[in-house]
Amino acid sequence: MIKYILKRLAIIILTLVIIITATFFLMKLMPGSPLANAERLSTSQRKLIEGQYGLNRPMLVQYVSYLWNALHFNFGVSFQYANQQVSTLIAQRLGPSAQLGVQALIFGVIAGIGLGSAAAVRRNTKTDTALSILAVLGISIPSFVFAALLQYYVGLKLNWLPIAGWSGFNATILPTIALGMSPLAVSARFIRTEMVDVMGSDYIELARAKGLTKREVVWKHAMRNSLIPLVTLIGPMAVNLMTGSIVIEQIFSIPGIGQQFVSSILTNDYQIIMGTTIVYAMMLMVVLLITDILYGLIDPRIRLS
User: Fold this and answer.
1) What's the burial of 261, exposed, middle or buried (CB within 10 Å: 0-12/13-18/19+)?
2) How far apart, in Å, do the first and last CA atoms of the chain sit?
3) Quick check: 26 pLDDT over 80?
4) Residues 186, 181: Cα–Cα separation, whole Å
5) CA angle (139 as vertex; 133, 140 as ends), nearest 5
6) CA-CA distance, 288 to 43, in Å (whole number)?
7) Does pLDDT of 102 surpass 80?
8) Can you name the residues that pair with 85 across neighbouring β-strands?
């Protein structure tokens, strides 16, 4: 296990180098510049600022310097916010984004497992049909549509929860539900499919023949084996939550990293764009590593090597 983790960490570092390289040169090819909107600056002032940020150095020198600093979590100074380190700005906004993503993932997976299990146990009934329709709707309808509906009906009409802001746990409930609908639907669909297959297998029939109750058969035998395919989907679901949270943060006015990422694109703030991209990639790779480890823990027959 330790050898496997060390090997994966080495792969993560190599992947980060590739991502930093691609992001750096793509930013340099992007039209416009951080100083494009600074029309009042004279030529000498522009050159002074370019020298301060190292933009007047050769491209290769800029790349090597940025790569070295990025690997030490130093993403430079923001163009948009004067004298503000990008790493500090990201760290300040990472908390709300991480909390929202974790809450949405936990809510979606747990609720999806419950609904999928109920549909599998009651397959070919009205309950199964209703839950299957809910899963299709959850996958088909974008998260920002759920967000608008929740804001209007739960926030404005019923006045149960805040419709925007980040003032406490109550303010996180609506964005969590909106963002968690997609993983809920995916989890429910996969658990339902896997459990239907598992419930018809030989070892389940053997468990029933031993006199185990229906609850014991479902939770101790069928559920554990049905979770294996779902664990492999945690990584992709986490990616969807990362990208989807950008829109949700805008809708609910959440001061997260996604909102900052959008504003940095509008102002051509290269440093924040590159820093945020690297952080997103790093989070994704860590999630995938955890997913692989969990895969081996859930199914002892699988050995990580």
Assistant:
1) buried
2) 6
3) yes
4) 9
5) 85
6) 48
7) yes
8) 77
Q: Rounded CA gap, 116 and 128, in Å?
A: 9
> In terms of pLDDT, which residue wins out, 215 or 91?
91
Among 133, 112, 128, 103, smallest CA distance to 184 is for 112
Look up residue 130 and give its two tokens.
């209703």
On whether the CB atoms of residues 15 and 278 are closer than 8 A, the answer is: no
What's the average model confidence in pLDDT over 79-84?
73
Evaluate if residue 109 carries a pLDDT over 80. Answer: yes
**Which residue from 273, 253, 251 is spatially nearest to 262, judged by alpha carbons?**
273
Residues 6+ apart with CB under 8 A from 24: 62, 63, 66, 67, 274
pLDDT at 267 over 60: yes
Give the CA dihedral 252, 254, 260, 261, nearest 10 degrees. Answer: -60
Q: Which residue(s) pair with 77 in the sheet?
A: 85
CB 89 within 8 A of CB 78: yes
Give the amino acid at 41. L
Write down the pLDDT at residue 159.
84
Could you give the count of Cα atoms lying within 13 Å of 233 in the half-sphere of its Cβ?
Answer: 21
Q: Is 77 helix (H, G, I), strand (E, B) or coil?
A: strand
- Residue 289, exposed/middle/buried by CB under 10 A (0-12, 13-18, 19+)? middle
To the nearest whole percent, how much of the chain has pLDDT over 90? 0
What mean pLDDT comes out for the span 134-148?
83
How far is residue 62 CA from its own chain's centroid? 30
> Given this model, what pLDDT does residue 3 score?
78
Contacts of 37 (CB under 8 A, 6+ apart): 267
- Euclidean distance between CA atoms 288 and 58, whole angstroms: 36
Overall size of the chain counted in residues: 305
Q: Quote the CA–CA distance of 261 and 256 in Å, as a whole number.
A: 9
Calpha distance 79→263 (Å, rounded): 12
pLDDT band at 206 (very low <50, low <70, confident <90, very high): low
Query: Residue 210 is encoded by which pair of tokens?
Result: 């031993």
